[in-house]
Amino acid sequence: MTENDPSAHDPAAPRHPETGQQPAQGGWAGSPYGEQAQPESGGAPQYSEPSYHAVTGADPAYGGQTANPWSAPGAQMPSGQNPQSVYPPPNPYGQPGYSAAPPPEPKRSGGKLLAGVALVALLVGGVAGGTVGYFTAGSSGPSSNALNAPKPAQQTGNAPAGSVESVAQKLSPSVVELQVSGQQGAGEGSGFVISTDGYILTNNHVVEVAANGGQIQAVFQDGKKAAAKVVGRDPTTDIAVVKVNGVGNLTPVELGRSDDLRVGQSVVAIGSPFELAGTVTSGIVSSLHRPVRAGGSSGDQTTVMDAVQTDAAINPGNSGGPLANMAGQVIGINSAIYSPQSASGGQGQGESQGGNVGIGFAIPIDQARRTADTIIKTGQAVQTYIGAEVKDAPQGGAELGAIKPGSPAEKAGLKSGDVVTKIDDRPIDSADTLVAAVRTRAPDEKATFTLSDSRTVELTFGGQPVQPN
Predict the structure, then answer these.
(1) What radius of gyration do the chain's Cα atoms show?
(2) In the structure, what pLDDT confidence band is assigned to residue 85 with cuts at 50, 70 and 90?
(3) Which residues have CB under 8 Å from 293's CB, separation 6+?
(4) Inside any domain, residue 108
(5) Considering the entire predicted model, what is its pTM?
(6) DSSP secondary-structure letter at 320?
């Protein structure tokens, strides 16, 4: 009998709560923890080979903690000590709700696992490789150089109808650059052909420097040049007509109408800003019936025009050029631009100061057509008038001043002090608005004037020859 034999011990000695074995030499007979485990002395039991828990069969290496043999419910050490205080930290296999980790799989299973991991790695590598190939596509193939590619086929056919390109193609041959000089200096502007025999419509302020013995030269799109002379001009509407000599078979523009323009519709401007002949810009109609003094802050009431406002780029040199709709029909003559330096907002195009800020003004073609026709037929413009002085009314509207005897205003019964608030359906909020509204009417045309006291007056507009300054 050996000292580890259970029969060598007292039968009454306490038994292991899980295995039922008795201690032997301070340990436990058959204990997997070996002789180094001395639970009565407080030593933490250590695992020994083979490394399987005697009760659960779990490999301690999976748990990573020392097994506590007193973890069974109700177990108490012979010494009366608390097993948890003797065997810290607690063994997870001995806590309620815990179970031992399963024994490791046989090595052949590990091989399958490794093979699966390798397969996944290959699959991931294939995806990654595909991604890299996508971002570096072409790097392994022959190089490509745009400089070596053949030119595309030339554009053929006409520009699409209603495009800026089509408007430019239609109008550009009819637009000219006007170079002027005279005793008061030199300048340049634009104009456009209105007849095959050489009549050109432009602004008065473009050619007035050459009106008294100066020179005007028209430069056409193809580079041809021709001398021109003033036929007639109207400073009050900023319209003038000149005629070139020695040039035939000119292409006149197609005139549209301005009484049916709509805010927001597309327009194209063509001219020679800063001597850059044939410049094409585009925009929209920004506003209608805008009262603008053609001379800007230096202009007086007699130069007010009923302007079409546009955001098409217009600069000094564009003056006298056409503003056209998308059918290529001229609906206005570019005449002025807004200049921040101008208190009144209007700034003559022919002046050196000012530049495009997206606010340009054009004379409505209906008004320009009537004036140009009169100039060509008689050599002199005729101005529409009512024969009354006018100023801004304090409460809004246009207050009439002195009434000229025998004038349309006197014949209609208007008196000094009357305040005009409407002409037909057009509201009148200032003196310039009234002047602009009168400018749009033809002599002998009738209109209803509404006054601030709600009276209405029927008036027939008069006409008088314009004496150029």
Answers:
(1) 52
(2) low
(3) 299, 300, 301, 303, 304, 305, 344, 346, 432
(4) no
(5) 0.67
(6) T
Rounded distance between C-alpha atoms, residue 289 and residue 426, angstroms: 9
Same domain, 293 and 441: no
Phi-psi region of 278 (alpha: psi -120 to 50; beta: other; left: phi over 0): left
Look at strands 254-255 and 329-337 and give their pairing.
parallel
Mean of pLDDT values over 340-348: 48
Number of helices (H) and strands (E) in the chain: give both, helices first: 8, 22
Tell me the torsion sign for CA atoms 186, 192, 193, 194: negative
Helix ranges (DSSP H) in 104-252: 107-135, 164-171, 204-207
**Structural domain boundaries enclosing 406:** 382-465
* Residues marked as catalytic: 205, 238, 319
Residue pair 389/402 in contact (Cβ under 8 Å)? The answer is yes
Name the domain boundary from 350, 380, 410: 380
Residue 120 in domain: no
Give CA angle at 373 (367, 376), nearest 5°. Answer: 140
User: Residue 200 CB: number of other CB atoms within 10 A?
Assistant: 29
- Structural domain count, the chain: 3
